[in-house]
Prior knowledge:
The chain is α+β, with helices and mostly antiparallel strands. It has helices at 5-23, 28-31, 77-91, 106-111; strands at residues 2-3, 40-45, 51-57, 62-68, 96-102, 115-123, 126-134.
Amino acid sequence: MLGGWDQLGLQASAVRLEVFVQEQHVPPEEEMDAMDVHCLHAVAYDASGAAVGTGRLLPDGHIGRMAVRQAGRGHGVGSQILTALVQAARQRGDTEVLLAAQLHARSFYARHGFVEEGETFMDAGIPHRLMRLRF
């Protein structure tokens, strides 16, 4: 499901807090930011209606905060979220999307056509690499 923070914020923040704060030990003040209200959010649900994954598309074409709960991993949830956000960017007229991929997730994004750029950098204590998809 795609929508604004007012519609999807509770579900998206629950997934992000579990994955980033609890699992990856990102400080909560670094995880939640003022950009959420300006983004298009995607939330995926399991058969019981529980939120299992999320991501967001920023106004400048960055995709971020991609997170899938452990129970949803390996079932295509991340691909569905990424595909929905890329399609939304295309529909609004963006010519490319960018994201900061955690190093372990680079192959996932590469399978969706993203290309690595630049050097590895640290974000919230986790190594990342910039990746870009041009339309």
